[in-house]
Amino acid sequence: GIQVEQSPPDLILQEGANSTLRCNFSDSVNNLQWFHQNPWGQLINLFYIPSGTKQNGRLSATTVATERYSLLYISSSQTTDSGVYFCAVVAYTGTASKLTFGTGTRLQVTL
Amino acid sequence: DTEVTQTPKHLVMGMTNKKSLKCEQHMGHRAMYWYKQKAKKPPELMFVYSYEKLSINESVPSRFSPECPNSSLLNLHLHALQPEDSALYLCASSLHRGQGIVGEQYFGPGTRLTVT
Q1: Which of residues 57-86 of B touch A (CB under 8 A)?
Q2: Where are the beta strands (DSSP E) in A9-104?
């Protein structure tokens, strides 16, 4: 099956710093999602991005499908950004979709 | 509204118990999913339902029994679980291909299950 790797695995930032998280995948995909999992386990949708660049406030994402990677940018980080960031590649399976999650990046933002 | 709800939030059960997890969405999605997430690992797909029919079973042991009684509800029936089944169980939903562009999944808050 498809392999999805994320880097770095762990990241500690001071509040206000910027960061870039990377997601590499081993095969072509139909689409890609980025999630933030908060400390209570809730997966929050950040981006649904098959290619190109999208922005939402302090966050933006870029997917280069032909080179099989996606990047998540976090600017001016805040303590509420702490948690685990997952990318997940989307494969259409008949009439539904199947997500394969990456290994995750655990982010801690300190004061 | 992109809300998926799950009950209960926490569940502790013995290995001989029978319990059920419940998931509900009112977004009109006709594809629903169960995932299992162990500590410090990514979620792993267990089951996919399309239009209330089971379409994918990722070789899940029969002690987990899914059910989709209607287009808004998804249940996961649990019986004779093992301690290694302790995990966060997540439900998700998405549009079905017949409804338009398929793919973006929305997750519920999960049920944290402990098997003693």
Answers
A1: none
A2: 10-14, 19-25, 31-37, 43-48, 52-56, 59-64, 69-74, 83-93, 96-101
